[in-house]
Amino acid sequence: MNETTESTVGHSTDAAPPPPRRDRKLADAWRELKKAPLSAKIGLLIIVAYVFVAIFAPVLTQYGESEIVGSEYEPAFWLEGGARLGTDNLGRDMLTRLLYGARNTVGIAFITTCLAFLIGGIGGILAASLGEWVDQFMSRIVDVLMAIPALIFSLLLLTIFGTSIPVLIVIIAVLDSTRVFRLARAVSLNVVVLDFVEAAKLRGEGIGWITIREILPNIMPPLVAEFGLRFCFVFLTIAALSFLGLGIQPPTADWGSMVRDNATLITYGDITPLLPAAAIALLTIGVNFVVDWFLHKTSGLRDEQ
Amino acid sequence: MFKLIKLVAQRLALGLLVLFAVSLIIFLGVELLPGDLCQEIQGQAATEETVAVCRAELGLDKPAPIRYLDWLTNIAQGDFGKSLANQRQISELIGVRFSNTLFLALVAAVISVPLAVILGLLAALYRNTWYDRTVNVVTLSSISTPEFFVAYILILFLSVQLGWFPSLSNVSPETDFWDRVYRVVLPAMTLTLVVVAHMMRMTRASIINLMASPYIEMANLKGMSRSRIILHHALPNAWAPIVNVIVINLAYLIVGVVVVEVVFVYPGLGQLIVDSVRTRDIPVVQACSLIFAATYVLLNLTADILSIVTNPRLLHPK
User: How high does pLDDT run on average in chain A?
Assistant: First the structure.
């Protein structure tokens, strides 16, 4: 950081940490992990399992995502004459749909959360570091957007733009980015007044450099924790919309619409329609456990940076 | 006293401004529609003449600001326009359904508010015991499960297996009061489970926060019993944040009914908006969104004002 007299915007490539340090960091992370409470370990295990299923879904089952394999509503293995998890309302294999659902539902929620963080995070840091009218302008827009309940707002926007996956992703990401904006702005406000940011400004660094190299590393822990919570929220919103028939559209396998399609089975005392709902609940609880642990740890992590 | 009135008036003015902005957004949203509403309705069958007739009928030939003012003044007089799907007056569709939704939210509130406050008080009283920890885990889990999961589990156990309550809450204007209550038990229970967790955690947190203040320590040192300290000394000062949380959760209830109404096929506003989104009946969606958003804004405004009125410290900002 001694040779930064030139005011180039961007990242210098020679600043990558040398390998020994990374090894130590990995070892540290491993040691932290072993010390983690049981709930966090369970949470991590759940997340790893979901990612595994999402990636290897086609290998884990012999049927196609929307392949019809039998008659409608065949029973699951614990009922008489049943095999696997039975079939759904169109005779598609439940287990297959459940596995592919991991890929679609979790994947779409993840992309949406990333997009929300990109919009809200950049917006929040810019509002904090530029201040004055930029801050006022952006904050007032966010205030008004947040005055309308998110679910109702997304219903209105889905009516206008129609229901397709890209539209769904953009709408939820934009609505959710308002919450990210608030947090990113609030935590960056504490950082932008510190001396090292002032120093960077005085030696003529551009706004991009200051954002990425000075502010971002210092607000990372709260943002990472927020990412976990936001992911849960987005995931539940998409599941709710799909359940209402307004989210991910058939024939794409998705947990919310699977519950909706097979709900009639519940009135006969069959629990198979609850499995996709349980899959949703299990993942959100797992993520919450990990976030809880991470929030306790953040002060320690900050020291290492 | 004058200061109090001024603060409240400021909040009210701000609330009105927000309401105005919200109505503007809901109106402008439709302007974003690629092409226009008439082309959207008629689809492939649109010819130049039919589109022109339709535009004149809906008043789309006027400029946007005038249409916005017309729309707003009509709504102020209770006229929301006509539904595209069945040509009925929207105010007719909404009237009964809105009162149904309010009834469901009210029943849920009557159950959940006292329950949440009592559970929160107990959790603060028996802090760090097995009771506190159990309640903590249970509420965390119920916050992070989808509403329809809770709803279907209740249906499975209380309706299908035990047969205590109906799984469909079909009420009509003729249904008498107690029958109505009986039919909304399951949806109200679902909503209760969802909001109690949040309210309870906030009650617990605000009491525990207060317990750290010096005057409580003083009471402690005098040898008062724990329950007396909480009920007589901590609670009066904790009311402001608790009332705030309650009102915010009521706002959530009004909105949270959407999914629950669909699960139980309850004829409320939530069901109507979902059906209208499916058929892309834009005027109905606009009207419902406006009602939901206005209720939400008004309740949040109430929370704001209540927290000013009940908290003397806010009156004298340093």
Answer: 80
Q: Does B141 touch chain A (CB under 8 A)?
A: yes
Beta-carbon separation of B141 and A259 below 8 A: no
Rounded to whole angstroms, how far apart are CA atoms B4 and B124? 32
Report the distance separating Cα B295 and Cα B292, nearest Å: 5
In this complex, the residue of B29, B147, B288 whose CB is nearest that of residue A240 is B147
Q: Which two tokens stand for residue B155?
A: 């249906």
CA distance B311 to chain A (A): 24
Among the listed residues B97, B95, B105, B96, the one whose alpha carbon sits nearest the alpha carbon of residue B256: B105
Torsion of CA A103, A109, A115, A118, to 10 degrees: -110
Please tell me which of the candidates B144, B263, B285 has its beta carbon nearest to residue A156: B285
Q: Closest by alpha carbon to A110, among A173, A180, A181?
A: A173
**pLDDT tens string A1-43:** 344 444 444 444 444 455 556 677 778 778 877 777 777 888 8
Structure pTM? Answer: 0.81
Residue A164: C-alpha distances to residues A114, A171, B44, B285 (Å): 19, 11, 20, 18
A87 - beta bridge partners? A93
Q: d(Cα B82, Cα B57) in Å, to the nearest integer?
A: 11
Residue B15 is predicted with a pLDDT of 86
Taking CA–CA distances from B301, the nearest residue in chain A reads A147
Cβ neighbors of B134 (< 8 A, separation 6 or more) are: none
- Angle subtended at Cα B187 by Cα B183 and Cα B193, rounded to the nearest 5 degrees: 140
Give the chain A residue nearest B40 (alpha carbons).
A160
- C-alpha distance from residue A64 to each of A94, A254, B196, B240, B297 (Å): 11, 14, 42, 57, 47
DSSP letters along A139-180, please? Answer: HHHHHHHHHS-HHHHHHHHHHHH-S-HHHHHHHHHHHHHHHH
User: What is the least distance, in Å, from the CA of B277 to any CA of chain A?
Assistant: 5
Say whether residue A17 is in contact with chain B using an 8 A CB cutoff: no
Task: For B173-210, write each residue's pLDDT tens digit.
Answer: 777 777 777 788 888 888 888 888 888 888 887 777 77
Of B22, B148, B285, the CB nearest to A155: B285
Count of beta carbons in the 10 Å neighbourhood of residue B59:
12
Q: Does B290 touch chain A (CB under 8 A)?
A: no
Q: Report the distance separating Cα A242 and Cα A261, nearest Å.
A: 10
Nearest CA in chain A to B166: A267
Of B148, B289, B296, the CB nearest to A243: B148
A160 near B CB under 8 A: yes
Q: What distance in Å separates residue B125's CA from the closest CA in chain A?
A: 23
Residues of A with CB below 8 A from B144's CB? Answer: 232, 236, 281, 284-285, 287-288
Q: Other CB atoms closer than 10 Å to residue B111's CB: what's the count?
A: 17
pLDDT digits (tens, 9 = 90+) for A153-184: 888 888 888 788 898 999 999 999 998 998 88
Q: Sign of torsion, CA A7 A8 A10 A14?
A: negative
- Quick count: other Cβ atoms within 10 Å of Cβ B132? 16
**Does residue A167 sit at the B interface (CB-CB below 8 Å)?**
no
In chain A, how many H helices and how many E strands? 12, 0
